[in-house]
Amino acid sequence: MNIRHAALPVVFIAVALFFAARSSSQIRPKTMATPTPAPPSAREIQSARQSFAGYQKWRLVNAQPFYIPEPLAIACAPIAMPSDSDSPSGATSGSHPSKLGKFIRVFVNQKGRAAMFTPQGFNAKNPRFPAGSVIVKQKLATKSSRAPELLTIMVKEKAGWDAQNGDWRYIVTSGSGKKIYAQGKLKNCQACHIPRKDGDYTFRSYLP
Question: How confident is the model at residue 86 (pLDDT cuts 50, 70, 90)?
Answer without folding.
Answer: low
